[in-house]
Amino acid sequence: MATIRETLAPSAGEIDVLRQIIRTANSAVRSEPDGYQPVGFMLPDAETGETIGGLNGHAGYDWLFVQYLAVPPELRGQGVGSALLQRAEQWARERGLIGIWLDTFAFGAPDFYRRHGFSEFATIEGFPKGSRRHYFLKRLNTVASP
């Protein structure tokens, strides 16, 4: 039997190994590649140029997954989050992606995503305890179901 090593900090290289195993297995049953492409839209500080917020995610199987959308408190309510999300949507449309999906917590920004045309497709109650995790999608292109 194989040895199992626990880690609370898997390295980027270790995660890449896992990703490659999954991609290889998936490609054995899928006729087209997943098209995995990381993407980010960063907010540089006006004075230092350091990243102070932004949006990142990845495209795969013709969908854009938004992993993080983070706006510093001093810039909230000024349309910065909307601009980041719109830029990501533009990027996805330029590549002919089907849509965008993401998740957020109830204490995060579910109403923000609803205002931007996202539809909720799943909710996990009690994740985290006493709250909910919401899953959203927004279709950009109409596609026929298989």
UniProtKB/TrEMBL annotation:
InterPro entries to which the protein is assigned, alphabetical: Acyl_CoA_acyltransferase, Bact_Acetyltransf, GNAT_dom
Q: Which key words tag this protein in UniProt?
A: Acyltransferase, Transferase
Nucleotide-binding in keyword set:
no
**What Gene3D superfamilies does UniProt report for this protein, alphabetically?**
3.40.630.30
**Molecular functions (GO terms):** acyltransferase activity, transferring groups other than amino-acyl groups
Q: What region holds the N-acetyltransferase domain?
A: 1-142
Protein's recorded name: N-acetyltransferase domain-containing protein
